[in-house]
């Protein structure tokens, strides 16, 4: 299946039982809700999917389950966020052998690599597989930026095709389009709070977080912007923003999992060292979600 890197790609949470084992029936339930809303692909085992706690066996089980549930209707993308190039290549090749349609690749995670080390990291992984690759560019959280000059080198690899743009700098959308064009490097916004702005400025898609709990609203914003119906998209976005801000928090996993619980699409179970929200912080997040649910807009699938 061809990955076009256009549209809404949920960065799915990983569903667990209380004992920390994978809750695959609940994982399937959420995937079905995403598909019913019209998402364009799904991403497994990203930061929101608690990548740091997943084993390679976990990742394969999630991949096989997702492939079975989606049944070839949308691309399934696997996240690569390993400690070494050797491990990253092994995960990339294992994902390919087990049917993944694409990869999202984070920069080296254990220390702040140099520009050359970062370029070599992505290039070595790209050369180890024929799967299309989405480069995750998030210097705010990971302290490593993939600059346009670095992309100039990386785009010599034909399977490096897209960027998850999470610099928080909306001007990067125009900067990248002006330098590389719309076709060679697809741009997907990776920050929920500024997705509408980046889509208006020409981003091709949205790697979304709150979509895990609110898939129809997320897809509606994307569809409306692409249809040029900006005012309608803006109305939904203004309702959505307090929820979207739960994504730009160190506790984004717990926040979004709590939202999933409140709409019947998940559980709060996380793997340690994470722990579910508690006390006043939990009540604060519940209040945000309850206020949003009380005024939830009625949206459908608006794709033309």
Given the structure, what is the number of helices?
Answer: 12
Beta strands, count:
8
Please state the overall shape, judged from the principal axes of the Cα atoms: globular
What is the domain total for the residues?
Answer: 1
> How much strand content do the residues show?
5-15%
Tell me the structural class: alpha/beta
Give a structural overview:
With 304 residues, the chain is α/β, with parallel strands linked by helices. It has a single domain, classed as TIM Barrel, CATH 3.20.20. Helix content is 46%, strand content 12%. It contains twelve helices and eight strands. Strands 1-8-7-6-5-4-3-2 form an eight-stranded parallel sheet. Helix 4 packs parallel to helix 6 (148-154) and helix 11 (252-262) packs across helix 12. It is globular. The mean pLDDT is 96.
Write the topology of this structure:
Layout: E1 7-10, H1 24-37, E2 42-44, H2 56-70, E3 76-80, H3 85-97, E4 102-105, H4 115-127, E5 133-137, H5 139-142, H6 148-154, E6 160-165, H7 171-184, E7 186-189, H8 195-200, E8 205-208, H9 215-226, H10 230-244, H11 252-262, H12 279-294
Parallel strand pairs: 1-8, 2-3, 3-4, 4-5, 5-6, 6-7, 7-8
Helix pairs in contact: 1-2, 1-9, 4-6, 9-10, 11-12
């Amino acid at each position: 299946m061809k990955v076009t890197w256009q549209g809404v790609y949920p960065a799915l949470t990983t569903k667990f039982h209380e004992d920390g084992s994978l809750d695959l029936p609940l994982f399937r339930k959420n995937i079905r809700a995403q598909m019913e809303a019209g998402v364009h692909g799904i991403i497994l085992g990203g930061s929101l999917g608690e990548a740091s706690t997943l084993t390679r066996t976990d990742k394969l089980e999630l991949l096989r389950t997702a492939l079975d549930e989606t049944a070839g209707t949308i691309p399934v993308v696997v996240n690569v966020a390993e400690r070494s190039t050797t491990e990253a290549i092994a995960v990339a090749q294992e994902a390919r052998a087990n049917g993944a349609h694409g990869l999202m690749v984070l920069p080296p995670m254990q220390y702040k690599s140099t520009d050359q080390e970062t370029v070599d990291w992505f290039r070595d992984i790209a050369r180890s597989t024929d799967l299309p690759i989405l480069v995750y560019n998030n210097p705010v959280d990971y302290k490593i930026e993939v600059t346009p000059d670095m992309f100039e080198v990386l785009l010599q690899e034909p399977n490096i095709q897209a960027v998850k743009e999470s610099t928080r700098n909306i001007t990067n959308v125009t900067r990248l389009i002006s330098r590389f064009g719309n076709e060679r490097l697809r741009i997907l916004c990776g920050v929920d709070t500024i997705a509408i702005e980046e889509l208006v400025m020409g981003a091709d898609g949205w790697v979304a977080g709150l979509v895990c709990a609110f898939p129809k609203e997320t897809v509606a914003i994307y569809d409306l912007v692409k249809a040029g119906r900006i005012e309608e998209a803006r109305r939904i976005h203004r309702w959505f923003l307090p929820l979207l801000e739960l994504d730009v928090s160190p506790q984004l996993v717990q926040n979004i999992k709590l939202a999933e619980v409140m709409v019947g699409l998940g559980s709060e179970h996380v793997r340690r060292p994470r722990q579910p929200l508690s006390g006043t912080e939990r009540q604060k997040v519940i209040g945000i979600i309850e206020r949003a649910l009380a005024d939830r807009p009625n949206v459908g699938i608006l794709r033309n």
